[in-house]
Amino acid sequence: MKAFTFVRARSAEEAAKTLGDSKTGLLHSGGCDLLDRMKERVAEPDMLVSLCDAEGLSDIRLEEDGSIWVGARATLARLAEASLVQRFLPTLSEAAALAASPQLRHRATIGGNLAQHTRCGYYRHKSFPCLKRGGDSCPVRAEGGVQEMAGIFDNETCASAHPSSIAPVLGSLDAELVIRNADGRQAFVPSFESLWASPKKGRASDLALAAGDVIEAVRIPARDTKQFVGYAEIRQRKAFDWALVSCAVRYEMDADGKIAQASVWYGSVAPTPWRAGAAESALRGKACTDETARTAAEQALADATPLAGTTYKVQLAKVALKRALAAARERA
Amino acid sequence: MSDDAPQDAAARGLTRRALFKGAGAAAAAGAVFRSLDAAAKDDAAAGPPVQGPGKTAVTLQVNGTERKVEAEPRETLLQVLRLPLDLTGAKPVCDRGQCGACTVWLDGEPVYACNVLAVEAEGRKVTTVEGLGAPDDLHAVQDAFVQKDALQCGFCTPGLVMSAAWAVEQHGEDLTEEQAREACAGNLCRCGTYPHVLEAALAAAKHAKKGD
After folding, report:
1. Which residue of B has its CA nearest to A40?
2. What's the per-residue H, E or C state across A242-296?
3. Which residue from A32, A50, A77 is facing B97, i.e. has the nearest CB?
């Protein structure tokens, strides 16, 4: 690692102000992803602004309006175990419990999980050119590039995949991001979709946030009607592995037993968490049957653009959606 | 868990809002905001504490003893434990949070010492395999590793002992094989001694109480 100055911010506000002033500093929370990138010298900040001493950022609590507030520093271990999350946000608890290993879950925070960079081997190895690191093209797309972990959507310029399995769950729950700006103000990202930015030359982060923006919390809105939620992920190993594909769904039923409104999100299929709008449309107005799930899965993947090495992910993604819908039905 | 799913709660007429009021959590939430605001006002002028990039004094609580070291912010807890402190139980193997050979407890929770910065560990309780038991007074899990032949080359062993011991502390005599498996999922053993490791964890748990 290159030497750096370590700033112990005592609040999100202080972190945001320090980052805004520094221009080259990076935010440090659990460090699981960041320290890896620094050891590979893919990230070489001269300053880390750490939230390790910041207070009040790991609360998980019910708000007065019924929404659930999850502080950005809440660890995946706490998301998995907190009774409030298990009770009201079961898919979030499930995805957190499946992620990584106990050692990482005790360090990894929900904010850091969203901010983590792609696991693309080319991005993380300095000897390769990479669009995200300022190169002219994506080596995954080049002839002979290893493609097996690449994305199957939005992969024209960069075939990376966003690895978070927490993000699709938060997307399906319409989570709202609470941000602290460099000028100290608190702001809200209006929709989970608008939190993300597609890859472009020289942009390593997948978040559409300004320098100095600090994720302070994730807020999951309350609902007046009964919610059906399901989560499924498919991976190579049962223990300690990344999801090859993850899928989270949420839907509501109307009085006739038909799906009134649905939300379908994927992880690890695109450079950002991926909303499957076509599947949402296919589910609307239908009873939640196996046949409906099959149709929705076909629709979700109709526009996929897999590379030669990732055609298998198309099938996995269909299966993941069917499993997530089945999980939602079974829970009910 | 399915009993507590939100749709069931809604079906019983129990909403999050009602639960919130019932629990009286409003006061607690308010207290958090007040303390944050007060802290921000007090410290606005002073600015946050800054360390490095050169050597900085770090005081660690390791295995119940206060240890003072000089470390750069870029030094990991693993580096500091091994070199100045000569606690070589935690092993540097992958140095990327993937193999588990450097597993230690931070405030009683298992972490990879390779992805914790030494400066971050200041003021927190660090437990290494050396602090778990002594050669003439082994921790139940260490003893069970010997009894069950739970090691071959031994390189992963300190990490696996820390993970298995955490499982025993967490669950005591109720520890199930599934829980032991999950607790050790973040530790790789290339000799493949996993079955004996699980046997050792379960054997140690038989005589343990939660939080021992």
Report:
1. B96
2. CCCEEEEEEEEECCCCCEEEEEEEEECCCCCCEECHHHHHHHCCCCCCHHHHHHH
3. A32
